[in-house]
Amino acid sequence: MSFVVINAITVPEGAGAELEARFGRRAGEVDSQPGFVHFRLLRPADGRSTWYVYTEWESREAFEAWASSPAFQHGHRGQQSSGPVSTSAELFTFEVVDLDTPQG
Ligand code: HEM
Q1: Span 45-56, pLDDT tens digits
Q2: Which range of residues forms the domain containing residue 41?
């Protein structure tokens, strides 16, 4: 079952461009992680100040393996070196409902 993890990152007024610039320089190590499917950075289009980091995985285990791997640390090197750009972050997890396969 596909597993989606979304990190909702809220930034101070005017710091959105810096956040996007950091993702533009991202390590890209997640792309070669086993079970990784997709990554998207979603910019708010309604004046809010929360960006959404959308990641999709083949399974929860695949996400958890990455989240506890050196690749996760390397992928967040910018956070360690230049300090956080965000004021808060909230994590959401989802299972993708397979509508083609009847439940039960
Ligand atoms: C306090 C929590 C977090 C903050 C503020 C944060 C912020 C960032 C930032 C600014 C980057 C760009 C690279 C850098 O500057 O380091 C990054 C990379 C990334 N973040 Fe996070 N992050 C957090 C936790 C997470 C979590 C829990 C996920 C799970 C979905 C996630 C997913 C990603 C991905 C996929 C990348 C790209 C890594 C790569 O290219 O290998 N982040 N994050």
Answers
A1: 999 999 999 999
A2: 3-95
